[in-house]
Amino acid sequence: MNAKPAIESHLSSAESRPFSHVETWVFDLDNTLYPHTSRVWPQIDQRITLYITELFGLDGLSAQALQKYFYHKYGTTLKALIDEYEIDPHDFLDFAHDIDHTDIELNHSLGEAIERLPGRKLILTNGSRKHAENVARKIGILDHFEDVFDIAASNFVPKPDRRAYEIFLERHGVEPSRSAMFEDIAKNLTVPHELGMTTTLIVPKTLDPFRESFEQEAVKTPDIDYITNDLADFLRAYALPAKSKS
């Protein structure tokens, strides 16, 4: 599939795993539980660039180029800065997530769908707990989640590193074969699927100009059971038990 969001609202593979057995529902945060129109990620991206600008004394363009280099080589800029420069990760996260939440809208439809999912609900993010809680609270869904597993909880090992998922599963006592993972970046679903989780890729309804095209691809691979551009509607259509859809 080309680098465009899915034309249909929901897509599923011929061998997609069902949701009927799922007891634990795991959601990524950024660009998964809110649309790009919330303007969350562009602000974080700008804050990371500013951090690099100040840390290395670079101009904006050079800092942005270095940031992208770090991202592609290490998976996250934070991982690069910890490994190569031994920065304080907590200071970095506080700085990067110091954003305006004005454009994040309350999403009653998503909240209702998540609340009605049978079993446990958890957030698994490469961001910080504080950031996840602030955003989820603004969306109106925080109270539906048992806990947030953030980058600090994984010892600053980011997705898609297998160790991040293994630490998460052990910490929360999650059985992957009875779990589902929702994520906006295709490569972050490879390990969850290998571990036995039912996987769903979230793509934007319209292309996000602030993210790279590969991060928005409606990728059809064996690691992805479902693709959707409307999470709330997808949960109602595919994940809720029949008796809960009425």
UniProtKB/TrEMBL annotation:
It holds the Pfam family Hydrolase. It comes from the Bacteria. InterPro entries: HAD-like_sf (IPR036412), HAD-SF_hydro_IA (IPR006439), HAD_sf (IPR023214), Pyr-5-nucltdase (IPR010237). NCBIfam families: HAD-SF-IA-v3, Pyr-5-nucltdase. This is Pyrimidine 5'-nucleotidase. It comes from Microvirga splendida.
